[in-house]
Amino acid sequence: MKPLKSISPFSSWMLRIGLLIMVVALVYPVLSNFDISNVNHILSAFLMLFSIMLVIGGFLKNNTITMISGIVIMLLCGWLAYSYNQFSILNRDFVAFLLSGTIGFHFLANGNK
Question: With b meaning 16 or more CB within 10 Å and e meaning fewer, what string describes 74-111?
């Protein structure tokens, strides 16, 4: 059975939109009580910003914004997974940050393909 290469652009857009929805669900409770002196709150705001930039990067021919957003999302998700959950694998937020970071890694590796 051959892979369906014709739906690859659609699947990339589904990953972008799914990541944005997941980040909004993860970060909204933090941003609703935003404290500028808390580093994790600032990093959560950057995660939201770079998730939006990942969606915007999909409309551009250049891969730069997509790849930069991918690496920043991957790094921020790794840090936030550690700082909020201390790598408790059974924690739902840890798994969500892990999946978000994996999607960021996908876009770092593939760009706008």
Answer: bbbbbbbbeebbeeeeeeeebebbeebbebbbbbbeeb
**What is the distance between the terminal CA atoms of the chain, rounded to a whole angstrom?**
22
Tokens 């936030």 belong to 80
Classify residue 57 as exposed, middle or buried by CB count within 10 Å of its CB (0-12, 13-18, 19+). buried
* Alpha helix ranges (H) inside the chain: 8-32, 39-57, 64-85, 92-110
pTM above 0.70, yes or no: yes
Domain that holds residue 67: 38-113
Within-domain flag for 30: no
The residue length of the chain stands at: 113
Domain count, the chain: 1
**Which SS3 state, helix, strand or coil, does residue 63 take?**
coil
Using one digit for the tens of pLDDT, what is the confidence trace for 19-44?
999 999 989 988 899 999 999 899 99
